[in-house]
Amino acid sequence: MAIVVEQLTYSGGYSAVYEKSQNIMPFAAIASSSMTSTTIQSISDILADIQNSTDEIRFLSISSPPPLVQFGFHVAKLPLALHTLNDDDDSNENLLQSLKSLNDHLKRIQAAIGPQLSDESLDDFARSLGRCIGLVAQTWEHIPEDARSRIGILHREMMKGVFIEGEIVEVEEEPVVREEVLDLESLVAKVKTAEVGDDLLIKWLTELEVLIGDGLVETEVQESVGLAVSALVGRLGGVKEEERVKILLLLNMLATKNDLFKEIMADFEVLSIIVRSLTKDVNESREALELLLNLSEITRIRQKIGRVQGCIVMLVILSKEEDPHISSPAKKLLCALSSDTQNVLLMSEAGYFGPIVDYLKQGSDMIKIVMATSLSRMNLSDQMQGILGQEGSIEPLVNMFISGKLEAKISSLGALKNLSTLPENTLILINCGIVTPLLQLLFSVTSVFVTLREPAAAILACISQSQLILNVKDIAQQILSLINLSKPAIQCHLLHALSSIASHSRASKVRYKMNNKGVLQLIEPFLVDDNDDIRRAALDLLYTLSKDLTRGMRTLIGESHLSVLVGMVNTSTSEEEKATAAGILCNLPTADKKITGILMRLNLLPILILTFPLCFKVSPTDANKLLLENIVGITVRFTVPWDSKSQRVFVDLGVIHLLVKVLSIGSPIAQSRAATSLAQLSQNSLSLSKSKQPRWMCVSSSSEAFCQVHMNKCTVKSTFCLVKASSISPLVQILRGKEREADEAVLIALSTLMQDDMWENGSNTIDKASGIEAIIGILEVGNPNAQEKALWMLERIFRTESYREKYGKNSLVYLIRLAQKGDHVSKPLVSKILAHLEFLQVQSADI
């Protein structure tokens, strides 16, 4: 580091030698510099420090650009202007403060002098120093006239802010009239009058920032500072973004100094403007957050902040930001505002639940009731329910219900009802031990608890969706015993609870008990109830139980029950109700001839014919899909091979073409059921075709009616022929598709074309529809049952040499895999096929 030694001679006659460093701190260091003056005990100490600083500035300015030289020349006059001060003035606190501020400014200037110091920055330093000098003059109570004159000249030179290049000329002192210095009041006046977008507004705001940052406002009369706050507040609503950010910064600086200033900012309109800044860019949001957080230290202002429209919602949004400089103060402000219960309720409505959960855990009994009541009235999304469950709201609510007084029970049950529709929360409710208290309440005959029974039943219905409910002993029997003792709204919830309990995979024993203990007689009246909700709830329960019918329950199903169900399929205006009723009929055992006879008498088949078109929609609903699946499932009953009478009635009504259509547009379940019905019909096609042979063989059959599979005259209505029904291609397309649920039923249907001596004709027909490749593909992707059916068909197909040559090679890889990993059923079939392909003989020859 180069050192330059120079000797400076001052007009006062003294001189000094300095070491000048060429490695000077740049201007940018000003913002980060933490240099402050040491603790000053007396005015003489401060003056000595000022002397050192001015000497150093004067020295550093030598050999610098002319403006800085001129600036250093003026700064060197400062000690002479202050030399009459002495320790007798130590009692003047304002003077001490202004001198300290002056000294701090000098040190900042000293640190900033260097090649990077721009003329603009130098002007800013000069004006800032000028204000400090003016403040010294104002606080010097008995200032001598010569000192007043010198300080006035120096103040004027500094406030000009422009230093003329050229020769430095000693300024001849002249008597001056004391003029108004650019103090706080002057800056405030300029801020108030500057136009929006004017560069000067930012300039005055920046100078005001320096004034506030240096603590100079603390020496002003409080009334003057109050006017400054009012002026800034007045400009806040009508300026540009950059100016607004600066004003927010200044207001925040002032708010930290005096609660009175905060009160000035507490006007509701001002707070509304500040809150609107929360929605702006990051810098403005940050300043607005800091200011609101500062203002919230006063209770009255805190209450006002919470009532500004949109404030709580915006704070909740900001609290979720990734930027910690935004989210952290937002959370702190929300925490501060949570001291007001009204704010807590607003936070909860905005999805910020921490405070309300805290009150539920630690608040007074009355506060807990208020919070629980609020939760009971909220429209909670699944996400909001999940957050409340995770943050621990359920346990204190359960405790309120179990041990609280009537009002606490009412409010907590309402809140729990609102939280219980989320499956994750039902687990928490059960683990908190709520089931037994709910049942006790439902069994209670105490009149004061009447209003509690409906929400209790609703909660029980929700938590019954969890398999954990099965851990409660005799839960289904207890609920069954409650049904006839309850009002309709409660009955509906209890029926839903029973349906959920019966639907669990581990509930087979529960279903068995329910079926054998008269559940059908219990719910029968509800199936014709005028209340839609009760009727559908009873229907849902019966549908669930019908999937696992016991022999005892089957014997109890009579014509009256079936008539009700058929009537629903026929006349109900609800697709859901139609689908459920059809589902119950679909689940009834197909081998029960008694039930089939009753359904025939009730004209179910014509009703099904009329229902099919309702299901063929371009964009079917879930209920629409279920209805189609179930009515197709019912057709399986009327196509069983041993009931030729039902088959004939079924086919005569024209159902076959509807089933073929289902193969193309139905869900996999509907396709599977349609294929099953077609397969059952096709099983009788061969015998029907033989019985329809013409008596006079010399009379030839029409070529259109002749069937290449059955080698006879076939029609859809006379022989139920799959070929004539144009069903082969849609069946094959199902095998080529991505869904696998219908594979087995489709293969069974196709295999009916390969019975007995028809196998060769059937193979040819299937091959024409590109079905053999699809069957081979099932060996790779099908389930074991489907693979078994495919192997049975391929064993017959590969009896034909042309098919062995055409498809044998492609099937080998799958056949070998099944030979190695197949079960006891598939392996023998694979061996037969490999023998047809002569693979085993070739392999033996190679050995």
UniProtKB/TrEMBL annotation:
Organism superkingdom: Eukaryota
InterPro entries named in the record: ARM-like (IPR011989), ARM-type_fold (IPR016024), Armadillo (IPR000225), U-box_domain_protein (IPR052608)
PANTHER family given in the database record: OS01G0948500 PROTEIN, RING-TYPE E3 UBIQUITIN TRANSFERASE
Protein's name according to its UniProt entry: U-box domain-containing protein
Annotated source species: Zostera marina (Eelgrass)
Lineage per the UniProt record: Eukaryota, Viridiplantae, Streptophyta, Embryophyta, Tracheophyta
